[in-house]
Amino acid sequence: MAHSATKSMIFTLLAVAFVSCMKFACPNYLSTARFSQLPFSLILPLLPLILYFLTSIFVRSSASKNLPPGPVSYPLFGNWLQVGNDLNHRLLASLSQTYGAVFLLKLGSKNLVVVSDPELANQVLHAQGVEFGSRPRNVVFDIFTGGGQDMVFTVYGEHWRKMRRIMTLPFFTNKVVNQYSNSWEQEMDLVVEDLKDNEKVRTEGIVVRKRLQLMLYNIMYRMMFDAKFQSSEDPLFVQATRFNSERSRLAQSFEYNYGDFIPWLRPFLRGYLNKYRDLQQRRLAFFNNYFIEERRKIMASNGEKHKISCAMDHIIHAQMKGEISEENVLYIVENINVAAIETTLWSSASKNLPPGPVSYPLFGNWLQVGNDLNHRLLASLSQTYGAVFLLKLGSKNLVVVSDPELANQVLHAQGVEFGSRPRNVVFDIFTGGGQDMVFTVYGEHWRKMRRIMTLPFFTNKVVNQYSNSWEQEMDLVVEDLKDNEKVRTEGIVVRKRLQLMLYNIMYRMMFDAKFQSSEDPLFVQATRFNSERSRLAQSFEYNYGDFIPWLRPFLRGYLNKYRDLQQRRLAFFNNYFIEERRKIMASNGEKHKISCAMDHIIHAQMKGEISEENVLYIVENINVAAIETTLWSSASKNLPPGPVSYPLFGNWLQVGNDLNHRLLASLSQTYGAVFLLKLGSKNLVVVSDPELANQVLHAQGVEFGSRPRNVVFDIFTGGGQDMVFTVYGEHWRKMRRIMTLPFFTNKVVNQYRYSWEQEMDLVVEDLKDNEKVRTEGIVVRKRLQLMLYNIMYRMMFDAKFQSPEDPLFVQATRFNSERSRLAQSFEYNYGDFIPWLRPFLRGYLNKYRDLQQRRLAFFNNYFIEERRKIMASNGEKHKISCVMDHIIHAQMKGEISEENVLYIVENINVAAIETTLWSSASKNLPPGPVSYPLFGNWLQVGNDLNHRLLASLSQTYGAVFLLKLGSKNLVVVSDPELANQVLHAQGVEFGSRPRNVVFDIFTGGGQDMVFTVYGEHWRKMRRIMTLPFFTNKVVNQYSNSWEQEMDLVVEDLKDNEKVRTEGIVVRKRLQLMLYNIMYRMMFDAKFQSPEDPLFVQATRFNSERSRLAQSFEYNYGDFIPWLRPFLRGYLNKYRDLQQRRLAFFNNYFIEERRKIMASNGEKHKISCAMDHIIHAQMKGEISEENVLYIVENINVAAIETTLWSMEWAIAELVNHPTVQEKIRDEITAVLKGNPVTESSLHELPYLQATIKETLRLHTSIPLRSCPGIILAMPILGLVVARLVSNFEMKAPSVTGKIDVSEKGGQFSLHIANHSTVVFDPIKA
């Protein structure tokens, strides 16, 4: 049932997020071409749902036979969407009814195997006790347990056994039960007495949890500390329960722990983890200071006479003997506070939550209610879910009681909990953290504020006192309407006039003041401040951080804006109204009579009843709660129809980057002549009927007279200093007047027509003179572009460009093209529509500002200033000969500013020139080094096309540049953000490693995994290779064999006298070790020594293969086709090498495994990776060739690259002896003489940091992501640890330092020289 509900839930979301947005918005959008134009940044938030949709269509009916059954797992999230925040035993028991006694849940990237049968569970715990003997840990539990310094969540092992032994004696024995049972009964009797003495218990009932909580805390604290709390109001009890409740809430919540299951979401955890650390730090300090230290003092004062009288005495005694640390003591207290007290308290309560709509992980019911959580929606839901129902808004529960009688009972029974309005971070800003009355917490402050506000506002006396002034204001409205002829014919939007009336009604009551008209500057300011405050406070799009905590980081910028708005708003109220009343009261002195509400409130403040801040926030409340809400009641909300709007995105997913007149015309066919599009947080009303549009423009000309602006256009127009995008008003009219005379008249057309025709004739001549035009054709855009620029620049500056190669023309077109591209792209402008995405714009906006700054400087320096110089040199004799003269003249008269001059040029460059060219496309390739005929840049890069060279070139040519390697173009994107965009936009094209003729030989044309084309075959090969190679289980299974091989290396080095004096080239011995590690995993086989004939053959084959594949000298035919004939001989050698190499692998290793499997028959147990792979081939999943090429991949990609990294690590350690010493010290301090094992690597952070630094400095293959990292990291860590623990590694005295020169290849780097290293054994 739960599974069916989940499937229905996700399908519903898909209908909303995918099918509906296409169907309702525009059927044409279902075409592949149109849909492909949607920016990836738009699709990304719904990608998991779309992937589910595709998975649900193409999912195979059969699963891997090696994994238990389980519910369908979806990309990225696994089964997390099904289980949500409710992964408890009841849900697991329910799932076992469907999937059996053993089933699999995939929570993000983690597998959870559930065994619900007691007998099977017993077998599992016996067979795999170590793996299943520990509770699962995560980053939050690591914070709350000090990384496993407790008992409950520590890893099963020696530490766990010690902690359990120490905790058992004082807590978990029958003796303890007998010892403390009397005290338990005393605490329980006190509960009974309290209940009997409370009259309310017998009539209305009480929430008994608080009293039981006190009882349990006293039971455990008397056992732990021989201490107790006096009452529920005891300050220490209040602190203890708050700390523990918050700890439990955070630790149990999936909404805070998602980063453990879905790694790509981890960055959102950073802020929360700091809060957890802060909470735990204060919590442990509380336990220590008030309880643990008190026991220490008592024990110290009693000295040797002290007798153990509570559990803490016993634990401190164990710590004093050195059995545990002070931190262990703290974390024992941590465990008892949560595991013993809170869980027992939970058992005393039942969780009977009201019904409600299906709640989804992270979002709860937020996607269903969106931005429209109003009483009508709640009433509608009550028809379905009853008089009491639950809405889960992100991480918050909202219980709705729609029955009046039940609501009355709830308010009486739990008045304190329900007596306050819900607050959030935005309301806290707008109310000063509850310094008002409306949103303050129910209590003493609320009662005081209500009393002070009631007398001047909320009594019949006040109504009688001010009713005449109300009627006066209403009569003025009637008179204004009668006097307005337009009212009787066209009608008006009456809201503005009613708004003035309401403000005057309330401001006369509050301040004995009124506004003169709707144009009164103070009225304009007041309404703007209040409207913006209302909009922000009421919007879910700004408040989502309160409901979905992991989205809070996106709120930071907004909260600063809110604070700034509120600061200016309150200053406005104070300076123009409150302070005016203070002055009047001060001037009148004792003779002053209270004549308005503010006098009364100031008087209360002067008596010390409230603060100055309270006065301000009373004004804040009245401005919004009294004026704006009353104004809303006078209007109806009749929005036009339109396509379905979805939370956060509105209709943005439907219209994407294609909000043009054709799409709008298409939508009008469905939704009528007037319809609504919601683009994120903005409403767009579209009027497609000419007559209606004319009426709207006449009736609401001010609102519709301006073009829409956004943050990008504000950058490109200086915040509206131009004409095209400035707000309709006085500035617009002035700019239009100044631009009309030199640009937009028939006189101008006649004046410049001849020059236009000249430029057009030049185009015709150029085309006639170009032979290529008549045969091959040309891209004519560039020539037309030159023509248009010359037409406009001759008009503007009396100047022209000489040719398309003119440096100024090149700069002008580049600047304008980039400006147009950025301004027209939705992918860069989404922050205007979806505010919570704005943080992603920061980098782009800086680039836009930089572009615009350089662009305007270009116009000014080369064109505007030239005209100024000409005008200045001519003086009074100068005659206006171009548009710029006219505009500069207007600026010199003070009509416009210098900035306005610049932005007029900006407008003409884009609005007049570029728009004319948009119908044609241009091919703008990235910059790059000079390319030479035939060879391109091949002569520059040679055999050294590695990441360091590319990084160096990016410093010269920018984040995106072009290398031409013979006939092939190589576009390099070195900026991470741009690279991410490219990979997202063209994932299929860039999802495969580059192939060439040599790699095709060595991989059978892509029959392997590493170099195959990204797609179905790649996924199949990766799946088959993952299980036997790239899992933690594999690491655990083979780590002992790894350590055996490493120990043999150490023994060989110790037994070799030469090692201690002259040193050796250790690479060969490490190579044997690595081959044996991998071949034992692959084939359950090993080589006996470096002289083993099979080892010699294997290393020769692989070394030659690596050399050839990495060399440009052999691969040039891929880049320079006319040189390919010279490759024939080489390619034959490659084929011969590969043929002999694969035959070697097959004859000596693969066939040996086939024989063993055949001889064992059905009794055969898989004992190595090759058995698993052959089994997959026998089932028909892969071919025999695929088996061979898997072995090919492992031999090179796993062994050779790890060996390179190992050499780098040893070389760097030799050159940095202090690092060797620090690793040695860390191993000694942490492991205390025990050898380093794979399972102890995580305890050695400095060692791990050394490995990572080696990989950072010397990345073997920096452009390729490797699943084998799960093997490489522990192998590298263990080798370094073994060598450093046993030897001091030195350079031979002759050299002093190891040579760390690099040798590059095709996107690879390895050490150039295999150096000699001295291994001096460390004496015990």
From TrEMBL:
Q: Give me the Gene Ontology terms describing cellular component.
A: membrane
Q: What is its main location?
A: membrane
Instruction: Write down the InterPro entries for this protein, in alphabetical order.
Output: Cyt_P450, Cyt_P450_E_grp-I, Cyt_P450_sf
Cite the GO molecular-function annotations of the record.
Answer: heme binding; iron ion binding; monooxygenase activity; oxidoreductase activity, acting on paired donors, with incorporation or reduction of molecular oxygen
- Transmembrane stretches, by residue range? 6-26, 38-59
- What keywords appear on the UniProt entry? Heme, Iron, Membrane, Metal-binding, Monooxygenase, Oxidoreductase, Transmembrane, Transmembrane helix
Q: Which cofactor does it need?
A: heme
- List the subcellular locations: Membrane
- Tell me which family the UniProt entry assigns to this protein: Belongs to the cytochrome P450 family.
Q: What does this protein do?
A: Catalyzes the first oxidative step of the phenylpropanoid pathway in higher plants by transforming trans-cinnamate into p-coumarate. The compounds formed by this pathway are essential components for lignification, pollination, and defense against ultraviolet light, predators and pathogens.
What is this protein's name? Trans-cinnamate 4-monooxygenase
Q: What is the organism field in this record?
A: Salix brachista
